[in-house]
Amino acid sequence: MRRSRLLVVDDSPTYLLFITAQLQEDGHEVVGVSGGREALDRIERERFDCVVVDLVMPEMSGTELCQHLDRMRRQHDRLFQIIILTSRDNKEDMMRGLEAGADDFVGKASESEILKARIRALLRRKFLHEENLRITSEFRDKEMELERTRDERRIAQERAAMAEALERSHAELEEAYRELQDTQSQLVQAAKMASLGALVAGIAHELNNPLAFVGNHLGTIARCLENITPEIHGHLSEKGGRDLEKMRQRLAATRLGIDRVEDLVVKLRTFSRLDEAEVKEVEIEDSLESVLTLLQHKLSERIVVERKYAGPKRITCQPGPLNQVLMNVVGNAIDAIDGAGTITLETARNGPMFRLSVRDTGHGIPAAIRDRICEPFFTTKPVGSGTGLGLSISYSIIQRHRGRLEFHSEEGQGTEVVIEIPLDGASADAPAQPGPAQAAHTAPGQAAHAAPGSA
To answer: Which of 104, 194, 223, 376 has the fewest Cβ atoms surrounding its Cβ within 10 A?
Structure first.
């Protein structure tokens, strides 16, 4: 693949210098300009593979520039990608930019590595498309030449070779497009879960101070009451004695309530490790309990959770992504139960693997959608209730851990989701495995929840 040329348009000299340097480090030839007019002039005279456009500029907005660029590439049959950069994370801005002709939309607050990854994926798709056009053109030229020679055997051989090359090029182009979709969906979900983790961590931190204040003063009150009881005991009436005993009982009950809140704060802090992507040793049962605490409002009193923890207490993994998987799987189990029901969490050791089973008594999955449960953006939930990314991203996370994600279900009989990951924490460099759609076929006739795309 040849070295790519990029044009960056931004009215801020500081940010223009920063992003130009970042993209040059990634191996691109980068030209930076400060306005839309200058950008259009450079595009007219020079060849670029990708144009990175700031959304808000005084002379010409990023949306207007995208409309001009899209018109130019359609009129002159030019192949270059357009990416909009913005400091505003706004869905309406995103839709306007994409409708104006942009191929992607990246926030300035994102890590520069995200922009680099998006550009690499788009350029790979562009270069493969160019190669596809080249092969198609050669195919047509060869076909005309072969028709002139009237050599039937040569025609058949050349057609077969060119058709194979064209098929390979199409397959590579489709794979590049799938990779771009997967990268975008995982970035969206990771950002959402990281925000949730930060929110939970903040709540836990804010609860700690008043909780410590109440707990300390409660202990002081209890001690003082015990100290003065011998002095006043003989002077109390019968009613006063009953009131004293009632005070002791209420203090003990209050202590139990404070202990429950303290336990909740600990579980919130455990769950808030969503941004931890490094491999480390964790208490897996604490992680499960923190997820159940966060989902307690959905469990209420209609769903009973049975715990059968017989596996290792500590495992080595990426805590944040694994919490995300647990949240998706347990959340799906809850959604699969319409009325009263039971969810069973069972841990065990399977040789070098840690095994977690999440089994529900819900309605299972219809046979008609069994092959689609792990497809990105596929969901059976109403609009606004699910994104269709939960199981797809969970599958990718388990892949990175060199693990397995299996589904066992019969319609009307409930579903069991089995997660297995190595106890030694192998992750990140896992070899390629079949895509998410194949994950459902770990055994004939098995499937997942009827609402696989939640979370």
So the answer is: 223
